[in-house]
Each structure stands twice: as C-alpha cells, then as structure tokens.
Amino acid sequence: MIEVPQAIVCESCDAVCQRTPLRPRQVSHCPVCGAELERHPGAQRRRILPLTVASLVTFAIANATPIVEIEIKGMRSQTTLTGAVVALAGEGRSLVALLVAATTLLFPLLQLLILAWLLVPLRQRRQPAGFAPLVRLLQSLRPWGMVEVFLLGVLVALIKLSGMATVLPGPALWAFGVLTVLLTSVLSFDPRGFWDMAEATASRDGPARREPAA
C-alpha cells in the first residue's frame, strides 16, 4: 500500500481512505470494497529484533552442522547444506546448486541481515543508512526465501532412504525446523511498520518521508 501521513490507499480498489489510529487488535477496512487496510501491530515491533537475532543464530547452526548421517553396510556419510550445494555443482547440476544456494542460503541470510541493519538503529531512535531502498529490497526478497520447501524436501528424502539405510537426523535438521518457525514469525512483520518506527525516531535530518512500502 502507498501511504501518506493522514491517508492510505487501498490495494484492492485504489480508494484513498482516511488513516485512523488503531487500538490493539483493531483492523481497519476499506469503506468502498471492504478489503483490509491495516491492523494494529500489537507487541510485534518489540519482538521483531529478538526474533531476528534468534533467527541469525539458528541460521548459523543450521549451516555449520550436519543435516543427516547415513549409514549403509557399515559406511557412514554426513553432509551440511553447503556440502550438498558443492556436491550438486560437482555432479554437473550447477543450476540446481545455484537455486538451492540462493533460496536456502543467500536470500534468507540477506533478509535477516537487512532486518538487523534496519531494526538496531530504529530501536536506538536513529534512522539507518539506506532505509528506503532496504525496505523495498526486503519486500522484493520475501517470495524467494524457501527454507520451508527445503526442509520438506529433506524430510521426504529421509523417509524414502529409511528403507535402504540407517538415517540419523543431524543438528542442522532440527535447526532448520526451528528456523522455519522463526522466519515465518519474522517475515510476517508488516513493512509499513518500518515507516511508522522511522517517523517516531529523532533524526537530525528531520522526520522520515513515507514512500511506497513495496
């Protein structure tokens, strides 16, 4: 939605509506088409930074430890996500390796780093550098983080392999499960909240200017 200080534009019908302050659990709707305009964030703005830090720690664990350990006829093998990407590239599946690396490593990490970059200064009532471009970049990256798809694929593969070998889940598998839940909570944060937080900061450049959230 494109917002100005006292108005909000409906995404569904483009009607310009008066923006009114919301109380906890309240949701405003477009008077023309009934579509949701915005909802009160509740305590989400206070939780988003701790959840982002927890996601970064979990992300590091998920990518530094083995996903699974497979034992076949006394031979054991284990790998990390990075090792799986390298193995795919070495087998001539460079495109698949690139997609896995981008959707499960690069894009989720980039989203979390952008969130941390934005939220830490805002919590200190400072405007972060590159605020507007980073909020828009965060929006554009959202559809490309596919950790949950990767986790589902790993679980399906483990079920199929369990009939042929002994499969032991590694620490990374549990970490990816936790990371999926954390990312769902973190990335559900409405980007319009960044503009509200920026407007509340005491910046030497004056109040933040609202721009399109997407």
Could you provide a short overview of the structure?
This protein is α+β, with helices and mostly antiparallel strands. It is 52% helix and 14% strand.
Give a verbal description of the structure.
The chain is an alpha+beta fold and 214 residues long. It folds into 2 domains: 1-37, no CATH class; 44-199, no CATH class. The chain contains 7 helices and 8 strands; from the N terminus they run βββββαββααααβαα. The strands form 3 sheets. Strands 1-2-3 form a 3-stranded antiparallel beta sheet, with no helix packed on it. A 3-stranded antiparallel beta sheet has the order 7-6-8. A hairpin with a 2-residue loop joins strand 6 and strand 7 (75-79). It is elongated.
Percent of residues in beta strands? 5-15%
Q: Note the main sheet.
A: 3 strands, antiparallel
Oligomer: single chain
Rg over alpha carbons: 21 Å
Instruction: Tell me the overall shape.
Output: elongated
Stretches with pLDDT under 50, minimum 5 residues: 1-5, 202-214
In whole angstroms, how far apart are the ends?
Answer: 7 Å
Q: Fraction of residues in helices?
A: 40-55%
The spatial strand order of the largest sheet comes to 1-2-3
Kindly give the count of domains: 2
Q: Helix count? A: 7
Topology as H/E string? EEEEEHEEHHHHEHH
Q: What is the typical, i.e. mean, pLDDT?
A: 78
Number of strands: 8
